[in-house]
């Protein structure tokens, strides 16, 4: 429950920042946490390398977006970085 509240607080603050600036922040599909249980925002959609224990759907998504076919210049995920 505490972690859920941290996500809600983080997203609420970010939404105001985005609204006031007229832009939006890039980020992952899931709000990441650090080893201390605090929100650890990132501008990456996927990690640079895929963990060995990644689930099959994430692995397929990761592999596809690393191909030329899966790339689009206006894509929000910084896959080429």
Could you walk me through the main structural features you see in this protein, from its secondary elements to its overall organization?
- This protein is mainly alpha-helical and 81 residues long.
- The protein contains two helices and no strands.
- The protein starts with a helix and ends in a 16-residue tail after the last helix.
Task: Considering the chains and any ligands shown, give keywords for the structure.
single chain; 81 residues; mainly alpha; 0% strand; flat
Query: Regions with pLDDT < 50 over 5+ consecutive residues?
Result: none
Outline, from the CA principal axes?
flat
Q: Please count the beta strands (DSSP E, at least 2 residues each).
A: 0
Q: Provide the β-strand percentage band.
A: under 5%
Count of separate DSSP helical elements:
2
Secondary structure topology:
Blueprint: H1 2-21, H2 56-65
Short description:
The chain is mainly alpha-helical.
């Amino acid at each position: 429950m505490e972690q859920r509240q941290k996500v809600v607080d983080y997203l609420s603050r970010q939404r105001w920042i985005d609204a006031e600036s007229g832009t939006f922040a890039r980020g992952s599909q899931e709000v990441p946490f650090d080893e201390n249980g605090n929100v650890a925002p990132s501008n990456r959609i996927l990690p640079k390398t895929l963990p060995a224990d990644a689930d099959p759907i994430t692995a397929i998504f990761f592999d596809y977006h690393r191909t030329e076919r899966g790339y689009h210049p206006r894509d929000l995920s910084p896959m080429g970085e």
